[in-house]
Amino acid sequence: MNKKMLDILACPICKHTPLEMLEIKIKDEIIIEGSLFCSKCSRFYPIIEEIPIMLPDELRDKKQDMDFLTRNKNELPEKIIKQGIPWHL
To answer: Fewer beta carbons below 10 Å: N end or C end of the chain?
Structure first.
């Protein structure tokens, strides 16, 4: 995901903008892995293989999100790992 995209993204649930970007793996200004976080509704949206996965709760893949959280629990803040919506560790 290109960092410039952050300016046009909003939370699909509450429409809040701007979202907070948390970078885990970057290459040439492109975020390979990371997370977007909505400070208004506390939802997180993983960035996996450069793609922000910004789906409503009912369409999200819980296994994919839980694998993402487990894999990145040391890099992500507590507000995502322990309190993030729709699920957390």
So the answer is: C
In a domain, 89, yes or no: no
pTM (predicted TM-score): 0.93
Mean pLDDT of 24-39: 95
Cα separation, 64 vs 60, in Å, equals 8
Phi, psi for 56 (deg, rounded to 5) = -65, 155
**33's torsion region: left (phi>0), alpha (psi -120 to 50) or beta?**
beta
Report if residue 73 sits inside a domain.
Answer: yes
CB 73 within 8 A of CB 65: no
- The whole domain housing 33 covers 3-81
Tally of domains in the chain: 1
* Residue 60 scores a pLDDT above 90: yes
